[in-house]
Write a structure and sequence with these properties.
Layout: E1 4-8, E2 13-18, E3 27-28, H1 30-45, E4 51-56, E5 64-65, H2 67-76, H3 81-101, E6 115-119, E7 123-124, H4 126-133, E8 136-140, E9 147-148, H5 162-180, E10 184-185, H6 187-192, E11 198-200, H7 205-215, H8 240-257, H9 262-274, H10 279-295, H11 297-314, E12 329-333, H12 337-348, E13 352-356, H13 360-379, H14 385-393, E14 395-398, E15 409-412, H15 418-431, E16 437-440, H16 447-450, E17 460-465, E18 474-479, H17 485-497, E19 501-506, H18 513-530, H19 534-543, H20 550-557, H21 559-573, H22 580-591, E20 604-606, E21 612-615, H23 617-622, H24 632-652, H25 659-670, H26 679-686, H27 688-702, H28 710-718, H29 722-730
Parallel strand pairs: 2-4, 3-5, 4-6, 6-8, 7-9, 8-11, 12-13, 12-15, 13-14, 15-16, 16-17, 18-19
Antiparallel strand pairs: 1-2, 9-10, 17-18, 20-21
Helix pairs in contact: 1-3, 2-3, 2-11, 3-10, 5-8, 5-9, 8-9, 9-10, 11-25, 12-13, 13-14, 18-20, 18-22, 18-24, 18-25, 19-24, 21-22, 24-26, 27-28
C-alpha cells in the first residue's frame, strides 16, 4: 500500500504527500515510515531537487502513530523485547535525524536541502514529531486543527524525538504543558507557544511552503541544538533557573500521579538526563526511557483500554445488526438533576428534546440547567450566542405528555420509586409512536421489574447515566429479560450521537458500575470501623491510583443515599445481606447529620465555601484508630480486590459479557486506577496464580467476600489470563 506519494516540480521542489488510502486520517505504520525514509533518500540523492515539502493529501496532517502498532510492539520485538524495542526506536530516530540534517556537512553545517512541513490541519503525536524534525513548520490557519503531543494521555510519551526536540525548542518549563499534560492547541496558539513557525491562509499553504524552500539559506536549516553554543531555554538542570524548574516538575509529577504512572516519570527523566548531553545522546536516552515505558505492562493496558477498546465500543463493537437507529426527537421524563443533564447533552448533539416534569416550574428549571452550562461556555469563549440559542431552542419544557408525540426515544429520570416510574411509563407510552423505545435511567431498580409497567417490554431498556451527565463519559446500557435488539441498537446509536462511551450489560442488582463501586466504598468504611486510621485508608487508595479515596467518594455521593441503598438492599437480600457492619457507621453518620459534601459535613470537614478541609476529627473519637495499623499493601489489596472480584463475579454471572466493557466501564465509570487498564487488565498483570494467593489470604483474615471466583481459579490452573483467553477465542 502506498501511504506517501512523491513528486518533483519544474522548480526542483519535491513534495512528499502523506495520504493513506481509504482512511480519513493518516496514522503512521512501520511500512509508512519506510516509505517516507525512501522518499527522503530520493530527494537528498537527486541533484535536481532543491528542497522538500512534507504535507498531507487529507484535510488533516496526521493523527499520530497507529496505536495498534504500539500496543503490539513489545510482542513483536522478539525474545529480547527490550533490545528489539530500543533498536526499533533508534531506527525511527535515524530517519527523523536524516530529515533534520538533510545532507548537510556535519562540520560546517552547510549544503543541506531545506525540508518544510506544511500542515493543513490536525497534527498529533508522530504527526507533530515528524514536523519537529523539519526545518520549518508552516500550518494552515484552521481553528479546528489540533496541534500537540497527547501520548501521555494513553500511558506513553512522545518517543520519536518529540520529547527531546520540544524540550530543546521551548525549554523544560515551556514544553511542560505540552509534554506532561498532552495539551493541544489550534495553529495560532501553537505558534505563539513556539511549537510551529508560521500560520498562513489554507489556500496559500503549499505556495508559502515552496517559497520558503526556494529562499532558505544554510543557516535557516541549522536547529538551535545543532548550532554552536546552544543553551536550553530557561536553563538546563544545573543552571539556577533550570534547577528550580526540574525540582518543581518532579514534585508536581509525583503529586499528580502518586508515582503510579510510569510514563510521566520516564518522560521527565528523559528530559532531565537528555538536557545534560549532546542531542544525539539525548535521543538515545529518550529511546531507553521509552523502551522502559513500553516494557511496563501499564502502557499496553492503558492503550488497549483507553484507546483501542474504548473506540471499538464507541463504534458499536457490541451493537446488534439492526438498521440505523439514530434519535431524532427525545422525550425526557423528570427534569431533576439527571433529566436536566440528559436534556442538555441531547440538545447539544442536535436532538430535539421534550422535557417533562410534574410542574411547569420544575420543567423550566430543568431547562435553565442547560442555560447555565452554555453561559459558562460563553464566558470561556467556547460557545457563541448563536450556538446557545440553537441548543436552548431545541428543549421544550412542559408538563404536557402530548409533547412526546414524534419521539423515537424516551428516557425516564423521575424519582427512584417503582410506582412513580410505572405511572409515567404508562402515560408516556400512550403518547409516543408504537415503535418508540422507552428507557429508564434508574440506578438501583431491576429493569425487568420496571418493564412490567410497559405494554412493549421488548422496547424497554435501561440507559444509565452517571452524574454529572455532561461531564461523565460512560453510559451503561442495560438489557432487561425481554429487551429486544432494536432497543439496544437505539440506545447505542443515541450514546454515539451524544459522544459518550457505552457498555451493554445484563440486568442484575446495581448492574455493573455501582455493583463494583459499592464494595470499594464499603471496604473503606469497614476498615475505619475496624480501627484502621482513616488517613491510611484514603492515602492507600490514592497511592494505588484511585482518583478519590473511598471516604471522599462517599462524601461526594452522600451518606443518606448510602443509607437508602443499604436499607433497600437489606430488604431485598434478607439474611444474605453482607454489609451489616458497614451500616453501623453509615447510619451513625446520617444521625450525626454528616451527609457528605452537600451538607458541608461528612467524613471530611468543609469550610463555609464548601471547600474540603481535613478528615473530620469526630470520626476518630467514635472509631478510635487501633494501636496496630495494617501495612499499606494489605489496605490496598482490600480496596482493589473488593472492586476487581466483583467485576469478575459480574462476568461469571453473565452481567458483563465482554471484558473490554468491564475494563473501559471501570475506568470511565468510577475511575478504577486508570494506569492498570481496568480490573481485568489489573488481574492479568498480577497473574491469576498470585491473585488467588492474595484472595486466599484476604479471605482467611477478613471474610468470605474475598473468596476467589471459580473463573479465576480455573485461569490460575491453566496459567492463562482474561485477555489471552479473549484473544484466543476471537482468533
Ligand atoms: P431528582 O429528584 O433530582 O429529579 C427527579 C425529577 O423527577 C424531579 O424534578 C421531579 O419533580 C420529577 N418527577 C417526579 N415525579 C414525576 C412525575 N410523576 N412526572 C414527572 N416528573 C416527575 O432525581 P435525580 O437525581 O435526577 O434522579 C432521577 C433518576 O435517575 C432516579 O431514578 C435515579 O435513581 C437515577 N439516577 C440518579 C443518579 C444521581 O447521581 N443522582 C445517577 C444515575 C441515575
Amino acid at each position: 500500500m502506498t501511504e506517501f506519494h512523491y513528486s518533483v516540480d519544474a522548480d526542483g521542489v519535491a513534495t512528499i504527500t502523506w495520504d493513506i488510502p481509504n482512511k480519513s486520517m493518516n496514522v503512521l505504520s512501520m511500512e509508512g515510515l519506510r516509505e517516507l525514509d525512501a522518499h527522503i533518500d530520493s530527494a537528498l540523492a537527486d541533484e535536481a531537487v532543491k528542497g522538500v515539502i512534507i504535507t498531507s493529501g487529507k484535510p488533516d496532517f496526521a493523527g499520530g502513530m497507529d496505536l495498534n502498532v504500539i500496543a503490539k510492539m513489545k510482542e513483536m520485538a522478539g525474545d529480547t523485547p527490550e533490545k528489539g524495542l530500543f533498536d526499533g526506536l533508534m531506527s525511527m530516530h535515524v530517519v527523523l535525524r536524516k530529515i533534520e540534517r538533510a545532507g548537510m556537512d556535519p562540520k560546517t553545517l552547510k549544503g543541506g536541502k531545506p525540508i518544510v512541513a506544511a500542515l493543513p490541519g490536525t497534527a498529533l503525536g508522530i504527526g507533530l514529531e515528524i514536523p519537529l524534525a523539519c526545518h520549518r513548520i508552516i500550518a494552515a490557519d484552521n481553528p479546528k486543527a489540533k496541534i500537540g503531543l497527547p501520548e501521555i494521555m494513553v500511558g506513553i510519551f512522545p518517543g520519536a524525538g518529540g520529547t527531546t526536540r520540544l524540550a530543546r525548542k521551548l525549554g523544560a518549563m515551556g514544553a511542560a504543558p505540552f509534554l506532561l499534560e498532552g495539551k493541544l492547541s489550534e495553529p495560532k496558539k501553537a505558534k505563539s507557544a513556539g511549537i510551529i513557525d508560521e500560520v498562513v491562509p489554507g489556500d496559500e499553504l503549499l505556495a508559502r511552503a515552496k517559497a520558503w524552500v526556494l529562499e532558505a539559506k544554510d543557516a535557516d536549516l541549522v536547529k538551535p541544538w545543532d548550532a554552536k553554543g546552544y543553551k536550553m531555554p530557561g536553563g538546563a538542570p544545573y543552571h539556577p533557573a533550570g534547577f528550580m524548574t526540574f525540582v518543581g516538575a518532579s514534585a508536581m509529577i509525583n503529586g499528580k500521579t502518586q508515582g503510579v504512572y510510569p510514563a510521566a516519570k520516564a518522560l521527565l527523566s528523559a528530559v532531565y538526563e537528555g538536557a545534560m548531553v549532546p542531542f544525539d545522546t539525548a535521543l538515545k536516552i529518550e529511546a531507553r526511557w521509552f523502551t522502559h515505558v513500553l516494557m511496563n505492562p501499564s502502557s499496553g493496558a492503558m492503550i488497549r483500554s483507553l484507546f483501542i477498546n474504548k473506540e471499538a465500543l464507541e463504534k458499536g463493537a457490541n451493537r446488534p445488526e439492526v438498521g440505523d437507529e439514530k434519535v431524532a426527537k427525545l422525550g425526557v421524563l423528570g427534569a431533576g438533576m439527571m433529566g436536566a443533564g440528559i436534556a442538555y447533552v441531547a440538545a447539544n448533539a442536535g436532538i430535539e428534546v421534550a422535557l417533562i416534569d410534574a410542574k411547569q416550574e420544575a420543567a423550566e428549571q430543568g431547562k435553565s440547567y442547560s442555560e447555565g452550562i452554555l453561559d459558562k461556555g460563553m464566558k470561556r469563549g467556547k460557545v457563541t450566542e448563536a450556538k446557545k440559542a440553537e441548543v436552548l431552542g431545541r428543549i421544550l419544557p412542559t408538563t404536557d405528555y402530548s409533547a412526546l408525540q414524534g419521539c423515537d426515544l424516551v428516557v425516564e429520570a423521575v424519582f427512584e420509586d417503582p410506582k412513580v416510574k410505572a405511572e409515567v411509563t404508562a402515560k408516556a407510552e400512550a403518547a409516543i409512536p408504537e415503535d418508540a423505545i422507552f428507557a429508564t435511567n434508574t440506578s438501583t431498580l431491576p429493569i425487568s421489574d420496571l418493564a412490567k409497567a410497559s405494554a412493549r417490554p421488548e422496547q424497554f431498556i435501561g440507559i444509565h447515566f452517571f452524574s454529572p451527565v455532561d461531564k461523565m463519559l460512560l453510559v451503561e446500557i442495560i438489557r432487561g429479560k425481554e429487551t429486544g435488539d432494536r432497543a439496544v441498537a437505539k440506545a447505542l446509536d443515541f450514546v454515539r450521537q451524544i459522544r459518550k462511551t457505552p457498555i451493554v450489560v445484563n440486568d442484575a442488582r446495581f448492574f455493573y458500575a455501582n455493583r463494583c463501586i459499592i464494595p470499594y466504598l464499603n471496604e473503606g468504611m469497614r476498615m475505619v470501623r475496624e480501627g484502621v486510621a482513616p488517613a491510611l485508608v484514603e492515602n492507600a487508595a490514592r497511592l494505588i491510583g484511585m482518583p478519590l479515596g473511598p471516604l471522599q467518594l462517599v462524601d461526594e455521593t452522600s451518606l443518606d443515599l448510602g443509607a437508602k441503598i443499604a436499607k433497600a438492599t437489606r430488604a431485598a437480600m434478607g439474611d444474605a445481606y453482607p454489609d451489616g457492619d458497614v451500616d453501623e457507621i453509615v447510619f451513625w453518620m446520617v444521625e450525626e447529620g454528616r451527609l457528605g459534601r452537600k451538607a458541608g459535613a461528612g467524613f471530611y470537614a468543609y469550610d463555609d465555601k464548601g471547600k474540603r478541609q481535613g478528615l473530620w476529627t469526630g470520626l476518630g473519637e467514635k472509631f478510635p484508630p487501633a494501636d496496630d495499623q495494617p501495612d499499606l499493601i494489605t489496605v490496598q489489596h482490600r480496596l482493589m480486590f473488593a472492586q476487581a472480584l466483583e467485576a469478575v463475579r459480574a462476568l461469571e454471572e453473565g452481567v458483563l459479557t465482554d471484558i473490554r466493557e468491564g475494563d473501559v466501564g471501570a475506568i470511565l465509570g468510577w475511575g478504577f486506577a486508570p494506569w492498570s487498564g481496568g480490573p481485568f487488565s489489573w488481574l492479568d498483570m498480577l497473574g491469576a496464580g498470585f491473585a488467588i494467593e492474595v484472595c486466599d489470604d484476604l479471605e482467611a483474615r477478613f471474610g468470605a467476600r474475598f473468596r476467589a471466583p471459580e473463573m479465576l481459579r480455573e485461569m490460575a490452573a491453566q496459567e492463562r489470563g482474561f485477555y489471552l483467553i479473549r484473544e484466543a477465542s476471537a482468533a
